[in-house]
Amino acid sequence: MANDHQASMGISDSGNCAGNLKGTELYQLSDTLTDWIVETIGESVSRVDINNQGWTNLVLEINGRWMARLPKPLSDDAGHALTSRYTLEKQLLDTLTASIGRDGSNNLSSSVLPKVYLAPDNLEVCMLYPKLAGNPIDWQSEQMNVSGAKAYTPLAGALGALLAKLHTTKMAHPQLVAYPYGDEDFLGDVLPALHPLVSDETYNNAYRYFSTVLDTLNSQSKVSVSLCHGDFGPANILLGSDFRLSAVLDFSDVCLGDAAMDFAPLWRRSPSQFMHDLLATYREVSGEDHWQSLQSQTLNNRIQFHALRKAVFVVWYGKGYGFDNGITGSLNYLKQYFTPGHP
């Protein structure tokens, strides 16, 4: 939920500085944090573009080459505050980068992941990393449509290999849990956020669906738990001009769970052949034992479930933390699925 790349796409504010980051337009960063940023990037700061549109982070683009993230002090209506998970992100990225580096097959390079620096403990919480090149996936773009399936087969392979590496990575951290935002009580806490926004019929259909699927999942043998990105959608996947994978962003939602949740955002939006190629590479790279542990016979149903669950989560989170204008796409997706006759 960091929306890191928007800092280079939709600037909400900008400030020009001569060698420092001081100024009200830069959110009054302290001198000590400024000194750390300058020392880390090895150059004075001549330009800073600010993006305040992210749901959990303030993002600064520095000199067009570096990205800095600072957590927003957010709390919901009940007073539940979000806490920074930057140390968890860094540990994950360091671990995953090392894993990819040990095996350079499948056209996957560790350079697709950000090299993260964290401010020392005596300073404000801040994450800094070199800006990664590329533009988010847009399946509706004319270029993607004209190029056809063969053009993005390498992309499917690279993403399949990356997810295979991620899902087979073993890591421990006190903040690494199944539901990092307190959304573990889905039927009792999360789903009701949808009710005021849709008809009773739509809500009742949604409730029946989620109740049935959750009961089914609970009655089946448990799917293996994987280390998941948590928000592996097109906005966080950057492509180069040749449609090859350039970068993957925003691991702030990293969690433990069903690998199907990472397939869901792409499954919801991408061509079927793309997903077929992605899953084929995933199976090859992750190995047959891991693939079988995912219970592939129910995988498609679980992918659909996680796509719908994530849409409800976005509504719940957006309403709870004051981002009402960011829930339209998810709300329309839910209405389309659960409202009979909805276009």
Task: Indicate the topology.
Elements (H helix, E strand, L loop, with lengths): L12 E4 L14 H11 L5 E5 L5 E6 L3 E6 L14 H16 L15 E2 L8 E4 L4 E2 L5 H6 L5 H15 L18 H5 L9 H20 L6 E3 L8 E3 L5 E4 L6 E3 L2 H10 L2 H15 L1 H6 L5 H22 L7 H11 L5
Antiparallel strand pairs: 1-2, 2-3, 3-4, 4-6, 5-6, 7-9, 8-11, 9-10
Report what the structure shows.
The structure is a single chain. It contains 11 helices and 11 strands. A 6-stranded antiparallel beta sheet has the order 1-2-3-4-6-5, sandwiched between helices. It has a 3-stranded antiparallel beta sheet with strand order 7-9-10, covered by helices on one side. The protein is globular, with a radius of gyration of 20 Å.
CATH uppermost class: Alpha Beta
Output the CATH homologous superfamily.
Aminoglycoside phosphotransferase (APH), C-terminal lobe
Mean pLDDT: 86
Q: What's the main sheet like? A: 6 strands, antiparallel
Radius of gyration: 20 Å
The succession of helices and strands, N to C, reads EHEEEHEEEHHHHEEEEHHHHH
Q: Uncertain spans, ≥5 residues at pLDDT below 50?
A: 4-26
Helical content (DSSP H or I, runs of 4+): 25-40%
Q: N- to C-terminal separation?
A: 29 Å
Annotation, overall tally of beta strands: 11
* Count of the separate structural domains: 1
Placed side by side, the strands forming the largest sheet appear as 1-2-3-4-6-5
User: How much of the sequence is in beta strands?
Assistant: 5-15%
Give the helix tally: 11
What is CATH's topology name? Answer: Aminoglycoside 3'-phosphotransferase, Chain: A, domain 2
Q: What structural class do the secondary elements suggest?
A: alpha+beta
CATH architecture label name: Alpha-Beta Complex
Protein name: Phosphotransferase
Domain Aminoglycoside phosphotransferase: 114-293
InterPro entries: AGP_Transferase, Aminoglycoside_PTrfase, Kinase-like_dom_sf
